[in-house]
Amino acid sequence: MDHNLAIGADIGGSHITCAAVDLVSRRILRETITQRSVNNKASAGEIIGVWAESLRAVTDKIPREKLKGIGFGMPGPFDYVKGISYIKGVAKYENLYGCNIKNEITGLLNVTDSLPVRFMNDVSAFAVGEALVGKAAKVKRSMSITLGTGFGSAFINDCIPVVDGPDVPKLGCVYHLPYKDSIADDYFSTRWFLGSYKKLTGKEMKGVKEIAGMAADNKAAKELFTDFGKSLGSFLAPWLSRFKAEIVVVGGNISNSYNLFGDIFENQLTTEGCNCKVALSELKEDAALLGSAWLLDDEFWNAVQHALPLM
Predict the structure, then answer these.
(1) pLDDT tens across 160-171, in order?
(2) Does the pLDDT at position 221 exceed 80?
(3) Which residue, among 134, 170, 118, has the nearest Cα to 285 in the 3D structure?
(4) Which domains are present in the chain?
(5) Cβ of 31: how many Cβ atoms within 10 Å?
(6) Sign of the torsion formed by the C-alpha atoms of 26, 30, 31 and 35
(7) Rounded to an integer, what distance in angstroms lies between the CA atom of residue 164 and that of residue 237?
């Protein structure tokens, strides 16, 4: 393959990570990995400028004639077909609203329109990466979740995100589904831990890592992880069973504290009659880089295009 390299870019809440990926070996060229901090409240020009600078740092390290294109794992709301951001109502990237990221990146990199710049939901990219070479690589049907600032999820069948049909919720994810007195995203995320700990103790914490560090000796902290694991199992079990997922892969920053809730989560799945296997992501952000770069694989691109408008 002459054009065997693609750039995968993972857009985080306050950073971009990107790297070249060999589409034949499905391997990240680690010497090309580039990460830049991003002020997510900056102007659209400043944000996209940092993204372009990061991508340029990768292209400078590879033969340009081998580059097949660029793939982004991008948080929503986003038009993944046209490359337009519709993020609003959250404390990040609001100044990108209505901006055509595809056109801006193409212009800043000074590449022709013939070089594809493609987009997919960031959690879907993570899930595709896990299905390609990660914990879900040996099964057909999987679900991946990311536990962090928000509650990300994606259902995968034969490496392709499933976003509609009777086996999955609308949009092919679960964050928006009703749970208790709100939605799932309000319970399976960092803000639930911080809010719940403050209610129990009156104390404010910076993050889940801080609460986890106290769990061995702090009853309130320990109880939060117990409640979290049990609730997560009860919530996910029906959807894992409905989709006939063979494995669920767990990622995101909260997964770093899996030792505090993992057994409870897995036991609850069993209690709910769900026999799906559970695995912690080892690829972590590498999965998102691989999945986004995979948008430049011809067979995958032909198969996934129908799903992009529904993400």
Answers:
(1) 999 999 999 999
(2) yes
(3) 134
(4) 5-124+292-310 (3.30.420.40), 135-282 (3.30.420.40)
(5) 10
(6) positive
(7) 19
